[in-house]
Amino acid sequence: xxxxxxxxxxxxxxxxxxxxxxxxxxxxxxxxxxxxxxxxxxxxxxxxxxxxxxxxxxxxxxxxxxxxxxxxxxxxxxxxxxxxxxxxxxxxxxxxxxxxxxxxxxxxxxxxxxxxxxxxxxxxxxxxxxxxxxxxxxxxxxxxxxxxxxxxxxxxxxxxxxxxxxxxxxxxxxxxxxxxxxxxxxxxxxxxxxxxxxxxxxxxxxxxxxxxxxxxxxxxxxxxxxxxxxxxxxxxxxxxxxxxxxxxxxxxxxxxxxxxxxxxxxxxxxxxxxxxxxxxxxxxxxxxxxxxxxxxxxxxxxxxxxxxxxxxxxxxxxxxxxxxxxxxxxxxxxxxxxxxxxxx
Amino acid sequence: xxxxxxxxxxxxxxxxxxxxxxxxxxxxxxxxxxxxxxxxxxxxxxxxxxxxxxxxxxxxxxxxxxxxxxxxxxxxxxxxxxxxxxxxxxxxxxxxxxxxxxxxxxxxxxxxxxxxxxxxxxxxxxxxxxxxxxxxxxxxxxxxxxxxxxxxxxxxxxxxxxxxxxxxxxxxxxxxxxxxxxxxxxxxxxxxxxxxxxxxxxxxxxxxxxxxxxxxxxxxxxxxxxxxxxxxxxxxxxxxxxxxxxxxxxxxxxxxxxxxxxxxxxxx
Lengths: 344, 268
Hints:
The complex is a heterodimer of chains A (344) and B (268). By secondary structure, chain A is α/β, with parallel strands linked by helices. Chain A has 10 helices and 10 strands.
């Protein structure tokens, strides 16, 4: 009897047993952790809106989730989210691209000086690098700078304290300050500021750029803590709008394909980087789009549940887990969705 | 409201600060023959255990609280809304001290930096946090429950401002700063505005601390600490000399008189 290389492979290796015969909500053996996250490991989260779900659920399951910029007493859950507290490891708002993340860390270390960071709207001032964390804006440019300085101190603390850095890649498309290369999380003129083609430019980051940017991020963390580990995901949330002269669906697939390929390459090449397939769970064709809301963009609660079930099958609930504060009590904050309001 | 010849039946519910009003009522009740007060007290967060069951507030799932209600009220184990004409909530975390402590660790760009602090906040975030301290208090939570059950008059009395002795206590730096810096007066005004607003949101009335009890801002006259007691089933016991947050019967008499006046009843 002749053998072949597929003989003896586990059920997860075959589509029929790995997917076809499995419920879409709970694929068995989809994810195998690369490393154990101990109860004492300090987890820092960052990334696009979808990362907020991961952060909240990890906290509820008893993991040590870093919050270097905790909310003041008195702010309740919705108010905390409105002011950007408790969403990520520091109050940096959503970070959509690897370049934006890299520039944040470099700025915190004094190695990068962003340009044009105070944007105006209706007489109020906004931090262009995190415009959503002060929904009512600030009184002056000086206040933007003072709050940003404080924020950068906490980002430095995050770099020092992190044992596991969880990052959700969101986009490859971004708007830049052309001369300095400063990457903004939102297009100038949407939440605040004004668009000037002589100053601002559109950029769609490539595979090579995104890979290099994240490797630079990794190097920064490892300099402070050589044993730091990384857990990467790709946001399954499609682009709200594209500026890439393409249909938004094609632009979404381009963007997510690049991000997925980068995440895959990083985890294949580096033992300290794990990839968690939340993107696959939500977007796979066999789910028939059931994990998306009616707008075919926002992820449903059932989708988040399916993702986290797969995650916690490998990183189990800890003794300190609590159901006291449901993750849903805290709204997900997503500047990018605001583009829909400006789409016409 | 009371019928002809029948006294106004006032239901006072509170935490440890209730003791001052209850003692103070002993001093001034004779001047208010048209008022009959019933006191329901519980320590710490015991009042938070009260649940509305039909036409009453009950704590029958927490026997310890139920027992406390009974001995503070003279045997009543529940607050039956129909049995009272007006409600008075005392203390229950409606506290300027909470706002002062928020200021102690957080500051806006326009506030003083003379006292060290941990974190800079935007004015909007500071305002939201201070508003949250008021609206998240047990007093406002219970007021909401009572308002859902009955349209009867509802008054909210805050925790007393700390005694002047606070300027020598463990948080002396904070209190001295608030006494000498314009931020102190500004914080007091912010607290009063937010408390009035929060009370109005549940169709209640906020009763500010009577002026005659107040020393130079932001303190209560130190002499009013005299006779401050803890309510205990075996009999009231005096607070420690170091306690700067609880007041005695003279303070309580001034506050209850002020509350009753807000109901349109004045001393005879």
